[in-house]
Amino acid sequence: RWESLSSRYVQLARERGALIALPLALTARVYMLLFSGELTAAASVTEELHAVTEATGSAIAPYGAMGLAALRGDEAGASALISATIRDVTRRGEGIGITFAELASATLNNGLGRYDKAAAAGQRAIAYDKDLACLCWALVELVEAAARCGMTETAIGACRRLTEMAGASGTDWALGAQARSRALLSEGEAAERLYRESIARLGKTRLRVDLARAH
Questions:
Q1: How is residue 178 annotated by DSSP?
Q2: In this structure, what are the phi and psi dihedrals at residue 114, rounded to the nearest 5 degrees?
């Protein structure tokens, strides 16, 4: 549904010449492509997004470029975008912007194996709880980071919140992410069973990055 809706959103914005809506539509599209592991396509959309914001003077933060740099492990590029975004959205009072920036920081540092930094960023990311979708993504990063650097209580608390959201959602994505997060807090046969459940559920989706992490 995300793939279908984000594609339609971009199509409508282009067809109608809705230049105010187009940056938002392209940003939604970039994140769908990032979670699908289609980084080349995401980079192409990010370039278009940059061109549109330059032409229109849009004030939208560089969410797409920031998420792409973080997922690629581009430490210098991601760090610069994260810092600039936090300054900008703080000035404008956009809580969701801080969440996205700290999510990018958590993703980047988890990928680089800097789990203490990832955990700190994850905790900052979940401080703003008004946007449930982004909160869910941040909780996943926080569980992994906290579990890997010995912050067991923090990891358990984040996993508990994630479990509540996954139970309400019931999607293979949410339940797959929940199973992987629980596996990180388990050992032996219990962990093996949860990892296999995560792989089975995520394997039914387009979410290749999450599936790869479960493997």
A1: H
A2: -100, 75
pLDDT in tens, 75-87: 999 999 999 999 9
| Cα dihedral 89→35→176→75 (10° resolution) | -60
Let me know: does 40 contact 21? Beta carbons within 8 Å: no
Q: Taking 80 as the threshold, does the pLDDT of residue 127 lie above it?
A: yes
Nearest Cα neighbor of 6 from 15, 18, 24, 202 is: 24
Q: What tokens does 30 get? A: 């970039």
If one counts every other C-beta atom within 10 angstroms of the C-beta of residue 204, the result is 12
Q: What is the DSSP letter of 126?
A: T
Tell me how crowded residue 3 is: count the other CB atoms within 10 A of its CB. Answer: 13
pLDDT for position 128: 82
Closest CA to 36 of 6, 76, 74, 73: 6
End-to-end CA distance of the chain: 24
| CA proximity to 107, closest of 89, 125, 84, 131 | 125
With tokens 């282009």, the residue in question is 14
Residue pair 81/96 in contact (Cβ under 8 Å)? The answer is no
Q: Tell me the per-residue pLDDT of 145-202, one tens digit each, with 9 for 90 and over.
A: 999 999 999 999 999 999 999 999 999 999 999 999 999 999 999 999 999 999 999 9
pTM of the model: 0.93
SS3 129: coil
Give me the DSSP letters along 28-71. HHHHHHHHTT-HHHHHHHHHHHHHHHHHHT-----HHHHHHHHH
